[in-house]
Amino acid sequence: MNIAVMGYGTVGSGVVEVFFENKELLEKRVRQPLAIKYILDLRDFPGDPHEDLLIKDFARIRDDAEVQVVAEAMGGVEPAFTFTKACLEQGKSVVTSNKELVAKRGAELLEIAAAHGCNYLFEASVGGGLPVLHPLHNCLSVNHIQEIAGIFNGTTNFILTQMIEEGSTFDQALAQAQSRGFAERDPSADVDGHDACRKICIMADMAFGHQIDPDAVPVEGISGITMEDVAYANLWGGVVKLIGRAVQEVPGGPVSVRVAPYFVPGGSQLGACKGVYNAILVRGNAVEDVVFYGQGAGKRPTASAILSDILECILLGGTDPSAGWSREPGMIADPDSQITAAYYRIKGCTQTQIEKAFGSVEFLTGDGVPSGETAFVTGALPERELVTARKALEGGGAEVLGKLRVLSI
Amino acid sequence: MNIAVMGYGTVGSGVVEVFFENKELLEKRVRQPLAIKYILDLRDFPGDPHEDLLIKDFARIRDDAEVQVVAEAMGGVEPAFTFTKACLEQGKSVVTSNKELVAKRGAELLEIAAAHGCNYLFEASVGGGLPVLHPLHNCLSVNHIQEIAGIFNGTTNFILTQMIEEGSTFDQALAQAQSRGFAERDPSADVDGHDACRKICIMADMAFGHQIDPDAVPVEGISGITMEDVAYANLWGGVVKLIGRAVQEVPGGPVSVRVAPYFVPGGSQLGACKGVYNAILVRGNAVEDVVFYGQGAGKRPTASAILSDILECILLGGTDPSAGWSREPGMIADPDSQITAAYYRIKGCTQTQIEKAFGSVEFLTGDGVPSGETAFVTGALPERELVTARKALEGGGAEVLGKLRVLSI
């Protein structure tokens, strides 16, 4: 069985490294010899131990009938889409960590795989090495999935952890993340929530059966989080986390998807998820709450997921007919109708005015709270009622200094 | 496709309940109609909605060629073993939540299943509804597994949580667990660690390929845990948890397995696992640390795992050739050579004497520490050196009031 690896960056080189290190184990699992025949990359790697496998021409992989499984670790939509499609059309299974491609065009590629009797698998696209898509599809599929809520992005979780535990400002924490290699020079895809959005969309696609367009999801990032927000979360008994969340209250009903920073209870599994780790909660109507936790990125953890998918392609033989979801967009719930509790930090109004607007709330008080402002957590209300209440206070001259939703998991 | 359910207690009735509730979903997944044809139980259930399916004679299941998959939810070794063996010999796949049977005779039943082209699956035997055996076998099998450490028993975790959060004594917490239905009248299988032992053995069997006899594993329960131990854990920054642990430092090398209460860091995923929940950490040489968290027991969560295994039997068709492990016991590491840090609570000796015996230690001091005693955490030492050091102090007249190992995860 011959494998090709496309892209020899962090992920691709991890796949090659772990493949050779654990080769005996992999071959025992599938009961046949395995080989990496090609590594595709436009760059040169002089002196690399696998220099003999490096090629620059994709057509050699596409046209070589001996290559049965391809690991795409290039990232981005193009040329990854074109290459993946060409491989699938040749009946070669493709596995990938490319969340952008899966989130944007997964349904289409799954259809092409099914039409050609091969598989398109992407465990590594969500949660890095953490097994979560496979258990969702295989172990939890006997459940109506009601909710998925998770910390999907290690970079932002590292930044928030620095703010919470070290008292860093957002800018300081971002600089630390960049100096330690956890954030890119242009950190916007992580910090603005787009990476987390792709991942919650992939999970929702699989759980609810319809492709959800990441561009249709309301996304808020973490760059506006202040040290005051972090301190108020602590007073409330929690921490600030960037959460991707998808909810389907009624089986087959509308799905609401959102990415935003939330207050999360400190002692919960999501609250205890620190640094570059990911934690993903799945709630089913029989299993109740299950949480998957692990390294959400990194060379070797991601390689673990890709190699596992390679073995699954070999063991499955033909297409898994239950994999995949419809290209038709599912029913998306009106974001303004979603029900959520929220934290506000406001100046220029009284507690009486606040409770008149929001109903009964929990005021956050304690040592070190700045004077001249009031912070509180509302009860669970529809988003539009939160907006109305806020406008009523602003109309009376109040100024909102901070606002975050509250996850009651 | 016809299913039989053996045992109509908590687990069996949960399987039937969720089956009918989610039947459409299950049938969609396997693309064929499904039916429960028999429910075996010696008791009568007058007025039960599924009374027409109830039978008392096992032979009707064994001899009915229309029954292809059997869910064994009887518990105990006999007659569950005899019935399971008879079903497998007829080519019927069997799925179960019966950890005692799998831990004692799993290898044998897996061999029989393989010889008859069917499957023996037992996801529900570890972690209740939490998917952990399937991900270990399917998603993490590309890793050399180095360590498994988990909270496998919800009853003891509920008791310890009550002691930690409510300040209950062990006896008070046990009574609360019994009154809430989380502990049996005779709680010894849970409290003494035997239930956790069966589960860590099943995970170690699967991870390391050899049947480990639960009777050969050193097991300590939680009945000796005092409120002082809980308070010292808090001073150290952690909590007391009953941990099942299996370590294989070198691939193919000896495996050390132990069940005992440990100090666990409070902010870790295992430390954050409270109440009746389970949390299981798996460390692989590529994926690093992964944690699976969920309800470790309960009617509907356990039913989720059993139904998932039923679907897997149907989807697999023939035997999964890589499932199973050798009946030959693997190499068990000498428990006295295991390296661990430990907490001691001692009276009748000085800090100088303690450091002379144990080397450099971390003394646990703070408000409310009783006078006349000293508590500390040692560095990582072989078990036999801990014993020697303790004996040296006891020889000098010291008395050990408490001792627990420390998990540095």
Explain what this protein looks like in three dimensions.
Two copies of one chain form a homodimer. Chain A folds into three domains: 2-126 and 300-316, 3-Layer(aba) Sandwich (Rossmann fold); 133-295, 2-Layer Sandwich (Dihydrodipicolinate Reductase, domain 2), CATH 3.30.360.10; 336-406, Malonyl-CoA ACP transacylase, ACP-binding (Alpha-Beta Plaits, 2-Layer Sandwich). Chain A is 36% helix and 23% strand. Chain A has 14 helices and 16 strands. Chain A has helices at residues 10-21, 23-30, 58-62, 80-89, 99-115, 133-138, 154-166, 170-179, 188-191, 194-208, 227-236, 299-316, 351-358, 383-395; strands at residues 2-6, 35-40, 54-55, 67-72, 93-96, 120-121, 145-151, 238-247, 256-265, 277-284, 288-295, 339-347, 362-363, 373-377, 381-382, 399-406. In chain A, strands 7, 8, 9, 10, 11, 12, 13, 14, 15 and 16 form a ten-stranded mixed β-sheet that branches. Chain A has a six-stranded parallel β-sheet with strand order 3-2-1-4-5-6, sandwiched between helices. Chain A is elongated. In chain A, 53% of the residues are buried. Chains A and B meet through helix 1, helix 2, helix 6, strand 11 and helix 12 of A and helix 1, helix 2, helix 6, strand 11 and helix 12 of B.
